Description:
By secondary structure, the protein is mainly α. Helix content is 76%, strand content 0%. The chain has one domain.
Amino acid sequence: MPLSLLPSFLLYCYVGAITPGPANLCSLSTALRYGRGPALRQWRGLFTGFFLVSMGAVLATYFLGAVLDRYVGFLSWVGAGYLFWMAFHTLRSSSGPEGSAPDAPGFWTGLLVQLTNVKVMIFCLMALASYILPYTRSFWALLAAGLFLPFTGPLANLVWLFAGAALQKLFANHRKAVDYGCAAALALCGVSLVLPH
């Protein structure tokens, strides 16, 4: 990648990482509901999952390259369906009695969220396909970018997590409204994945 594209690449990483998506909303929701400690345990799974998806994207772009373009549209529909499922699950968890909250999510929940997070898959694939592949087919260049990407999304997850922890007491009496807001944001993310741009 030419150095002149570095600001564009970093802006892409920032916007892709900080905007609402399954992992960011999951971090916010867990911190609001259970506090910082359980949310940080879940975050370790989010980071691990992001790393694994990023390394998978490196291998996929290296071995498959331009062939992947055909499947991005399909992945968008799969991702939208997943986001709608998460929105439904968020609404359903809000409908139970206040004392019936399940145990706090942990590492494995975070890992599963990221391994099934189509936003992260598309984010990593598009970063590599748009900023690295047009300029080099070097595995080492792809790997370097792939090793950088896990420090974008998971850092943004921490921003959402600490915002949720800071706002936990404020929103304790408004659990349903927060759940409805998170569910609506997830559904909006799903719609934006499949609407023509």
